[in-house]
Amino acid sequence: MAALLNYFDMLESGFCVRINRYARTRAVRSFFSCVSKLGDWYFWAALGALCLAHGNPGTPEFLMRCSVTAAAGILLYKLLKRHLVRERPYVSHAGIVCGTAPLDRYSFPSGHTLHAVSFTVLFAGFEPA
């Protein structure tokens, strides 16, 4: 598995360095910092509270499904992160500047992405509008 990850690191390193140059401006860093915050639990909790306030009778069951999904996602995330140990790009590639303090040491899998995709699918099915 490590050899496969090293291969992909090599393929993406030039691309990452080029993209990282754009993130050296404060405006770009601020924008992506805000986007990243949308993956935090409190955004999804607020969205769940809005669904509850909307008064749909299926909301409690839906929120329970969200809770189970969150727990399964955290378990999967921690298990994969412990075994895949993929360093963050600024550690692996000297040309990449870290734009903000990382939440943890390894970059893959992304907990924000895992939960954002999971909850987006759940919420889109529950409240398509």
Tell me how many strands there are.
2
Integer-rounded radius of gyration: 18 Å
Strand content: under 5%
Give the end-to-end Cα distance, rounded to a whole number of Å.
Answer: 41 Å
State the major sheet: 2 strands, antiparallel
Overall pLDDT: 81
Strand neighbour order, sheet with most strands: 1-2
Order of helices and strands: HHHHEHEH
Helix/strand structural class = mainly alpha
Question: What is the helix content?
Answer: over 70%
Low-confidence stretches: none
The number of helical segments is 6
What do these coordinates show?
By secondary structure, the protein is mainly α. The chain has 6 helices and 2 strands. The chain is globular and about 55 Å long. The chain starts with a helix and ends with a helix. The mean pLDDT is 81.
